[in-house]
Design goal:
The complex is a heterodimer of chains A (about 120) and B (about 110). Chain A is mainly β and about 120 residues long. Helices cover about 0% and strands about 50% of the residues of chain A. In chain A, β4 (about 35-40) and β5 (about 45-50) form a beta hairpin. By secondary structure, chain B is an all-beta fold. Chain B contains no helices and 11 strands. In chain B, β4 and β5 (about 45-50) form a beta hairpin. Chain B starts with a strand and ends with a strand. Classes of the chains: A mainly beta (about 120), B mainly beta (about 110).
């Protein structure tokens, strides 16, 4: 069965960086795009970006002002998301999610990781 | 950015009720809208995609309609498991955006 398993809780200082992982299993990794979505406490979901696992092409939201880097390791079926210059406003649960259409970067998201809580505090 | 506005923000209903949640887009998104259910502390769960297509395994009491700027999620007969928060999402243009959520509470 399809699974996305994310790395564990992070506590970071303002100004630092965080790198989260998302390990995929149960499907052909290179056939689907993975998105990252975050949710600050009590807030709506916020789309961050995606990576086409097959070729490594990425797209991210301009709302992150080039602070975000999404990469993948096809040998291990893992997608990474790194966010730099953290502030308290980056405190959120971060999710990875898979699109529900083969070989398309943008579609609805049918499988989600369990989420990773990132807390940014001095 | 395309703004997605849901109404109502909170909805109180009883088991067996028919409920409707509306999502309005600030500009046309064709039919590129998905609906998700989220329970506290859990990841969202896809219910509907392309405005009206039911995701595999989702009960048929869920349905979606709409195109352009106005979309609706309907639950035909509420079950105890349906009390959760619901989000719409547009995936027509970047950045992809979500509604603010509708919390469905037990009356």
């Amino acid at each position: 069965q399809v699974q996305l398993v994310q790395s564990g809780t992070e506590v970071k200082k303002p100004g630092s960086s965080v790198k989260l992982s998302c390990k995929a299993s149960g499907y052909t990794f290179t056939s689907y795009t993975i998105h990252w979505v975050r949710q600050a406490p009590g807030q709506r979901l916020e789309w961050m970006g995606w990576i086409i696992a097959g070729n490594g092409n990425t797209k991210s939201s301009q709302n992150f002002h080039d602070r975000i880097t999404i990469t993948r390791d096809t040998s291990a079926n893992i997608v990474y998301m790194e966010l730099n210059s953290l502030t308290s406003e980056d405190t959120a649960v971060y999710y990875c999610a898979r699109v529900n259409v083969l070989f398309r970067p943008t579609a609805s998201l049918d499988y989600w990781g369990q989420g990773t809580l990132v807390t940014v505090s001095s | 950015d395309i703004q997605m506005t849901q109404s109502p923000s909170t909805l109180s209903a009883s088991v067996g009720d028919r409920v409707t949640i509306t999502c309005r887009a600030s500009q046309s998104v064709s039919r590129w809208v998905a609906w998700y259910q989220q329970k506290a502390g859990k990841a969202p769960n896809l219910l509907i995609f392309k405005a009206s297509t039911l995701e595999t395994g989702v009960p048929s009491r869920f349905s979606g309609t709409g195109s352009g700027t106005e979309f609706t999620l309907i639950i035909s007969s509420l079950q105890p498991d349906d009390f959760a928060t619901y989000y719409c999402q547009q995936y027509d243009s970047y950045p992809l955006t979500f509604g603010q959520g509708t919390k469905l509470e037990i009356k």
